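Exercise 4. Each item below gives a protein and its sequence. For each, produce the structure-token representation.

Item: Apea-like HEPN domain-containing protein (Halobacillus salinarum).
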Amino acid sequence: MSRKTKNRNEMNKNVFDIFLNYMDNFEIEIDYTASRWIYLNQDDKDWCKGIDIYSQFNLLPRVYSVLFKYNEENYLAITGLGKLNDFDPIIQVDEVELNAGIFMTIINEVYVPLKKNADKYEIYNSVLSQHEDSSYNGHDFTDLKKFFESIYIYKIGKDSLFYDFSLEKIVTYVLYNNSQELYLDFSTQTLNQLNNLIFKVQNELPFNHICNSLLSVQWKDSFLEAYKCIESIFHFEALTDLYKKSNTTLDIYDFTKLIDLEIGWRPKEIDTLKRIFEKVNSTPIEIIKELKSQDQKTMSDYKWFYQIRNSIVHSRPSIEEVFFENSEWDKLIQATIHIIEQWNKINKIS
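Answer:
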């Protein structure tokens, strides 16, 4: 993934343009053409030039995450969240101090907005007028940083459990480890099951859906995002037997992609879901049975599960909207995570 720019003059302009654009219709006249820059020592300049961003993931409109390399070391940046808890020491991911070089790069490469309540008078006095001082030698980046949404930087040790994890998988842990940042009140049992998913499943799940599930503001949306992870394995489940018989040199990911793109074949969801339910143990099934109403007890568990999904996705007279208590939605999501984890442990396709 290439950087947008490594030209420091351009990078400085981009940073201060964020402030200038924010000051539209300000009652005091502002010099928009003045030369302003962030002071960088040699170490800052090296960081600014040497950072190589290789993965980005937008969690929310004002929350971003980034993986980058510097001097052959891996780093994680998280922006826009509140005060974050430390990583478990066994993971070997440690917070490092933000410097001017990292700050300039992250502001340029990622959308980091100013805080919504940023005071324009304070910005004018402490940022946009600073260049008028005869001793001006560039802004201290900390004078600017306080107006932006939070930026946290972590170094991922070479022996870290996360060293080869996808950014989405790492961010899933960050959200799990900082449940105070979540809108929905997930139970400890559901969060613990999520932790198992992160560390015990080696297959490359679409963890972006798990992140979206955790960040949802409605329970039904949270369930639907988690369900998408089950949808992502439909092709694998339906085509596993054919793949084994084909003796192809393709791996199963490329094989299923080829079938999808070249032939346009799609597995029948309800039949594939039945196969998946037949593979998992009783834990998620017992949770689902507990959630079914008395008049639904005779319905197959996989059909009931699929019906819940359809009640959210489709809006037709024949489909009734489903209503659960918060604790019931939490249990349904817990069961969904169980199913995802178990299927992936059974089918080691990575």
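Check: The longest helix spans residues 326-346.
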